[in-house]
Amino acid sequence: VSDMNASLESLYSACNMQSDTVPLLQNGQHARSQPPASASKPAQPQASPRQKVQRSQPVHILAVRRLQEEDQQFRTSSLPAIPNPFPELCGPGSPPVVTASSLPPPTQAPTKQDVKVFSEDGTSKVVEILTDMTARDLCQLLVYKSHCVDDNSWTLVEHHPHLGLERFLEDHELVVQVEGTMGSESKFLFRKNYAKYEFFKNPVNFFPEQMVTWCQQSNGSQTQLLQNFLNASSCPEIQGFLHVKELGRKSWKKLYVCLRRSGLYCSTKGTSKEPRHLQLLADLEESNIFFLIAGKKQYSAPTDHGLCIKPNKVKNEAKELRLLCAEDEQTRICWMTAFRLLKYGMLLYQNYRIPQQRKALLSPFATPVRSVSENSLVAMDFSGQTGRVIENPAEAQSAALEEGHAWRKRSMRMNILGSQSPLHPSTLSTVIHRTQHWFHGRITREESHRIIKQQGLVDGLFLLRDSQSNPKAFVLTLCHHQKIKNFQILPFEDEGQTFFTLDDGNTKFSDLIQLVDFYQLNKGVLPCKLKHHCIRVAL
């Protein structure tokens, strides 16, 4: 009882100290509206704490929720009004004061969503991403999960099998937003594309001269061409003949087409570009451009180089698709690149520059291709009495090649002398290449051409496959000047050993790995060096 009395007295003393500044009513509420007591009244004598506490009388306790509401109301009303910094934006009847209702709603945090991505071999992976994740971020995540080398050429492809369309997403596009415009049968593919930013690497020779006209005089330099395309105030025009499919019909017409920032137009009178002769075919704002996968078979296209302008609202209907067809692959790539440049402008150039800026910030020894153990190795020369470090890069490269050749000769001698190698050297040389990413096995010529077209028609893009006509031979499929060429690799017998050659035995290699390594450094009989290899990864 004494402890309870002491606690009540301390509580009362705290309330009595607060009553000096804010008067209280009997139920504990603040008396804000009561006027202060006049000074003429005599001061009441202060009673002792024990006289004021009457334990026999009940105390009215308000509900907790009501107390919280009244306390919140008191705090809100007691806060000073925030002056509006933009009174001219207020209406005539609204006060120039920022109220709680006039403040913008709080921004919602990005949520998580599952996205299913397929690879070229049919395997798939479900990835949990944020709703604000871009296509570049998702590609880097898939590269990390698939243990691939991130060379900034991986892309996310929007694939519509029922419409026969596909396109690669731009790096800045939101994956969840694009997925909302796709039908139930559509899907994402994870694929290489080396030609995504080929225009920025060589803009002068990209577009034919008769295909582009400018509103202002251009000096033809690389910088001027980039500025004309990326500057929103410039008015470049891409013009030329295309086969256009009529809406709702199966017939195609060859028309003179002009692409501007405002849209795609066709001329109703020859090659005239007067406003009265131009008819709008498609708008660039709410649409995207796609490749036609099988235009001849599905849409009776005159050539295999078809493209399509698809509105974002269209998911499964082919009636509203604007189908076009070019005469060759180079013309199709030019039209699709021009569409992307006029639609995205400077944003497309920023996507191209971001990987280069990141690469410039990295240390020259922190390249993603080499491992940590390889970075710690140095080239040494032990031909003299003491070893020395080889500082010349060319000499170090030749020393590495000589060491590799010596290792192969030494291993072949050990196999001939009866070592415990599980494979005979001739058997090893015929199967070792099957572990490489650039070897695609038993695929047809048409399939190899399709893979190279999908991964970008750039110089030096290649793959190797089994020959269909000769079971002991192989075929090198190479892209040069946007054309695909095939070179047969034949077996060659010399002193009882089997070699492989591309030039009738003038240059011989013990296996296909040596052949690819050689032609990556030397052009030889090929039109260009081997630079990029087509790759398929399993997710």
Write up this protein.
Keywords: Cytoplasm, Phosphoprotein, SH2 domain. This is Growth factor receptor bound protein 10. It is found in: Cytoplasm. 29% of the residues lie in helices and 22% in strands. A hairpin with a 6-residue loop joins strand 21 (497-501) and strand 22 (508-509). The longest helix is centred in the last third of the chain and has 24 residues, at 393-416. The protein has 539 residues and is of the alpha+beta class. The strands form 4 sheets. Strands 3, 4, 5, 6, 7, 8, 9, 10, 11, 12, 13, 14 and 15 form a 13-stranded mixed beta sheet that branches. It has a 6-stranded mixed beta sheet with strand order 22-21-20-19-18-23. Strands 1-2 form a two-stranded antiparallel ribbon. The chain has 15 helices and 23 strands.
Unreliably modeled segments: 18-47, 365-376, 413-426
How many strands appear in the DSSP assignment? 23
Strand content: 15-25%
Distance between the ends = 74 Å
The overall average pLDDT, rounded, is: 77
Helix content range of the residues, please? Answer: 25-40%
Largest sheet: 13 strands, mixed
The SS-based structural class is: alpha+beta
Radius of gyration: 38 Å
Shape: globular
Number of helices: 15
Domain PH: 235-344
Pfam families: BPS (PF08947), PH (PF00169), RA_2 (PF21989), SH2 (PF00017)
InterPro entries: BPS-dom, GRB/APBB1IP, Grb10_SH2, PH-like_dom_sf, PH_APBB1IP, PH_domain, RA_dom, SH2
Subcellular location: Cytoplasm
